[in-house]
Amino acid sequence: MSEKWDEDDGVIVETRKQERVRRPRMYRVLMHNDDYTTREFVVEVLMSVFHHSESEAVRVMLHVHYNGLGVAGVFTREIAETKVRTVEEMALERQYPLRLTMEPEEDDDGE
User: What is the pLDDT of residue 21?
Assistant: First the structure.
């Protein structure tokens, strides 16, 4: 007693568009050079907050020192904001004017 299925036998087929999940926009955390913040403190920040090795932290610190600006790391917006705030608090405690900013990275489609 098998029944044959008729294509038009009250069966409705619904198709859904497959949604593309976009990667979150990434932000560069930029470290700015100043004449008062010590090199040792900058290396400490790069190691403790941005998790760079000592040699990488020294390399980034020297880049900032000689070029005036350098990338401390690239993160999602919320993480970048948290890291900037953390460093600002550390610098304020030690009375350093260390300044960090963040900027969005360009997307693959140029945005």
Answer: 86
